[in-house]
Design goal:
alpha/beta, Rossmann fold, 14 helices, 13 strands, 15% strand
Length: 368
């Protein structure tokens, strides 16, 4: 049952794909249910193409980050957040939403603060945390929200006394369709997928090709590598693979992620929350190399959430050599049974219906 026609559900999201893609997945689910969805975002997210949000009403409000900045830029960020809150408050007064769902990061701050400051009946305020460590924006916003929905049951730094519900991390419909599809260990060609987050991981451009060149010749001859590389690194990476006789497809960005996950036999990746979630839903074995220096070391915690049940392994970048990585890759590729067991464990650790569960939670609480 949808909400009343005059009560839209506002989604507050922006910044990187890690925050934006789960918001997009929830929006698709709500639209499918007949809900009116409105997006509140920041100017930085204008470049994130979204066929889902292209169909919805959009509003852009000011915002800015505070962490890791100098005094001057932090002050500018505070002013931008204050302006964004005033803008969001005006927008929300006009919309009169039944609920607002925020997906973390600084673009979530103005809409939630604005929603909490509305006099009279306030909209339901839901925060969603994708990472295994509660993000700084969400830690701040918890005091202004009604419900905290989380991805991982092991999420760290949860607030005391707040209603917290594990729903998983919404994934896009094309990724969701991969759930339950059988994994087949490689017999001939070995499909290796290497991804490094929204901008690519520069270290992967040297580390991974050097490691793969150390594999036995028969394994190198079977490899087909699909690797995300920064634009400035592509030619050097291509030469390295050509010299080693390894077939490779290289690009700064892939828009066919579902297809790549489906055909992958092994994945080497950073450990952003959306990446970890999508790999788990697809049921693929993975080697995670978390981004060192990530805020609150959340990527390591994300990786551990999947490695804990055997769906992946974590290798820390500090101290990681090409020899260590080559040995790990060879061990996997020479053991089809272990690859299959990891794929099964990965699937078992996933929550493919997270978008539906979050949509259920919102609709039930607004109608209550």
């Amino acid at each position: 049952m949808k909400l009343s026609a005059g009560s839209p559900i506002v989604i507050a999201a922006g910044g990187t794909g890690g925050h934006f893609f789960p918001a997009e997945a929830l929006a698709a689910e709500l639209i499918e249910r007949g809900e009116r969805v409105v997006l509140l975002t920041d100017a930085r997210s204008g470049g994130l193409a979204s066929t889902v949000f292209a169909k919805t009403e959009r509003h852009v409000v000011a915002g800015g980050g505070l962490a890791g900045r100098g005094v001057k830029r932090a002050f500018q960020g505070m002013l931008a957040l204050a302006l964004g809150t005033l803008q969001a408050r005006t927008i929300l007064r006009g919309l009169k939403p039944g609920a607002i769902v925020a997906f973390g990061g600084y673009p979530s701050v103005p809409p939630i603060l604005a929603a909490a400051s509305i006099l009279g009946a306030k909209p339901l305020r839901v925060l969603h945390e994708q990472n295994a460590v509660l993000g700084r924006a969400n830690r701040f916003l918890c005091r202004f929200a009604d419900i905290l929905a989380i991805n991982f049951s092991c999420t760290q730094r949860l607030p005391h006394g707040m209603q917290t519900i594990v729903v998983g991390n919404p994934v896009r419909p094309l990724i969701r369709e991969l759930y339950g599809q059988n994994y087949t260990a490689p017999v001939g060609t070995i499909e290796l997928l290497v991804v490094g987050g929204s901008l690519g991981a520069k270290v992967f451009s040297s580390l991974v090709p050097k490691a793969l060149t150390q594999l036995p010749q028969d394994l190198r001859g079977r490899l087909h590598v699909t690797q995300q590389c920064r634009g400035e690194d592509i030619e050097a990476v291509r030469r390295a693979y050509d010299d080693a006789g390894i077939r490779a497809e290289l690009s700064p960005f892939f828009d066919n992620v579902a297809t790549l996950l489906k055909r992958a036999h092994l994945i080497i990746s950073r450990a952003g929350a959306s990446t970890v979630t999508e790999i788990a839903v697809a049921g693929r074995p993975a080697i995670f190399i978390p981004l060192p220096g990530a805020i609150d070391d959340h990527q390591r915690a994300n990786a551990d959430a999947l490695t804990a049940n055997g769906g992946a392994v974590r290798l820390d970048q500090s101290g990681l050599t090409t020899e260590i990585l080559a040995k790990e890759i060879e061990t996997f590729l020479m053991n089809s049974e272990r690859l299959t067991e990891m794929a099964t464990a990965s699937t078992q650790a996933s929550e493919p219906n997270a978008a539906a569960r979050l949509a259920d939670l919102i609709q039930e609480r607004v109608r209550a």
